[in-house]
């Protein structure tokens, strides 16, 4: 897909006038009478994201962009970015100032709204381009939009074209572009050193064999380790999912897509930190060598895990990767994973729930989410639920019975393997329908909030 970008600052551009609904009459009174009459004939009410294109003597003279009210804008994220698909082709420039936060959301949403997944059929993007509004950090917004395009492309690619090997190739491409170091563990070394990752992925065909991807970048600064769930397709294993639940399971590597996208943004921004990216890449397949309900597995950390559901495989592969992270230098470790349906039941698809014991980090994440149109919500590591993940014959249970507090028990399971300073995102990574800035399909969640929080979290 084309790289998301703004129109050049010196490009010939038509004026785009933002109009709040309560200022519409004042705006119309300042227009030539014929144009004002045209706008009224269109029924333009200046609702958030509504567009009115005004004719001039030689074609289009300008356009009005509805701002609605603060209340209506709050109900629709990237509301003003709907203009990207509603305006004619060409470059457009705001000719009246917006509040800086509103201008940033409009500009970022405009870039994100231009994303289309065109690998398998022509998917033309909107042709209206925006000249970056004054006062925003345009290069940063372009880097964020490019990161999200990477995440969406990876999530949207079906499993026949994106298995563990292809996920490794995406990581290697990123490492090559930014001069990062990369190592990939497979075969006997994986079996012996990362037994949970190997066990979950061992039933897949040889060309889709499991692996652990380990990428590092940066020579100085605080340590940040990102761990992403890379289950390239999840059948559920022997606890087979129903067909309807498998339809979107190409996105079960969404956590891996997120950490690669975040790594791309960090490296493009040249943040002063040391970055490590760990991706356990597997396919949870059904076959003669599939792991079974009732098996007891030993992890890299030495803790034993009783398997009560082979469809709770994500926490297993993450556990071994987190154990490796815990053996390294302390810093901040963050997991991204499409881990539980319980998280969707708790907060729905639009919010990215996260878990951390670090109150300052939690506050910075919440603020970053508000500032960057990336809503997140803190859920608790609720200590009394620890007993739920402790079965009778092993150290841990990968799928406690009862179905209650599933997102929390999964997070508690991961915390048993993680370094001390730890944050976990249980993401959906999917937009169920087209929305402003968010075409149907793969979606990036929590990344902009975390990027905004890093100066506080590390600090930089």
TrEMBL record:
Pfam families: Peptidase_M17, Peptidase_M17_N_1. InterPro entries: Leucine_aapep/pepB, Macro_dom-like, Peptidase_M17_C, Peptidase_M17_N_1. Keywords: Aminopeptidase, Hydrolase, Manganese, Protease. Residues 309-316 form the Cytosol aminopeptidase domain. GO terms for molecular function: aminopeptidase activity. CDD domains: Peptidase_M17. It comes from the Bacteria. Belongs to the peptidase M17 family. This is Leucyl aminopeptidase family protein. It comes from Rubellimicrobium aerolatum. The lineage of its organism: Bacteria, Pseudomonadati, Pseudomonadota, Alphaproteobacteria, Rhodobacterales.
């Amino acid at each position: 897909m084309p790289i998301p970008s703004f129109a050049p600052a010196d490009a010939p551009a038509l004026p785009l006038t933002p109009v709040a609904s309560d200022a519409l009459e004042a705006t119309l009174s300042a227009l030539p009478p014929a144009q004002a009459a045209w706008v009224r004939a269109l029924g333009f009410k200046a609702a958030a994201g509504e567009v009115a294109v005004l004719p001039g003597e030689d074609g289009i003279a300008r356009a009005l962009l509805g701002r609605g009210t603060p209340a209506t804008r709050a109900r629709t994220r990237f509301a003003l970015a709907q203009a990207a698909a509603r305006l004619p082709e060409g470059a457009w420039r705001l000719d009246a100032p917006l509040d800086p936060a509103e201008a940033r959301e409009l500009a970022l949403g405009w870039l994100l709204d231009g994303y289309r997944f065109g690998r398998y059929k022509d998917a033309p993007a909107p042709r209206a381009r925006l000249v970056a509004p004054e006062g925003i950090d345009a290069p940063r917004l372009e880097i964020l939009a490019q990161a999200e395009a990477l995440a969406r492309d990876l999530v949207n690619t079906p499993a026949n074209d994106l298995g563990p090997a292809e996920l490794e190739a995406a990581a290697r491409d990123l490492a090559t572009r930014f001069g990062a170091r990369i190592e990939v563990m497979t075969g006997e070394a994986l079996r012996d050193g990362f037994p949970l990752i190997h066990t979950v992925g061992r039933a897949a065909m040889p060309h889709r064999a499991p692996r652990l991807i380990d990428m590092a970048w940066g020579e100085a600064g605080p340590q940040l380790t990102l761990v992403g769930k890379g289950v390239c397709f999840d059948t559920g294993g022997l606890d087979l999912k129903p067909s309807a639940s498998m339809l979107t399971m190409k996105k079960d590597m969404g956590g891996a897509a997120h950490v690669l996208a975040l790594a791309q943004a960090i490296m493009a921004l040249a943040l002063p930190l040391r970055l490590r990216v760990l991706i356990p890449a597997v396919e949870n397949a059904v076959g003669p060598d599939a792991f079974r309900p009732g098996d007891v597995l030993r992890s890299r950390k030495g803790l034993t895990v009783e398997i009560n559901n082979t469809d709770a495989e994500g926490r297993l592969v993450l556990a071994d990767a987190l154990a490796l992270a815990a053996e390294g230098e302390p810093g901040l470790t963050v997991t991204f994973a499409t881990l539980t349906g319980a998280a969707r039941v708790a907060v729905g698809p639009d919010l990215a729930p996260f878990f951390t014991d670090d109150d300052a980090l939690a506050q910075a994440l919440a603020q970053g989410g508000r500032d960057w149109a990336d809503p997140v919500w803190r859920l608790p590591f609720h200590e009394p639920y620890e007993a739920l993940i402790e079965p009778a014959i092993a150290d841990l249970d990968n799928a406690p019975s009862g179905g209650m507090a599933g997102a929390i028990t999964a997070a508690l399971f991961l915390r048993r393997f993680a370094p001390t300073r730890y944050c976990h995102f249980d993401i959906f990574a999917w937009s169920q329908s087209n929305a402003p800035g968010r075409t149907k399909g793969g979606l990036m969640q929590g990344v902009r909030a975390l990027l905004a929080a890093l100066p506080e979290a590390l600090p930089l």
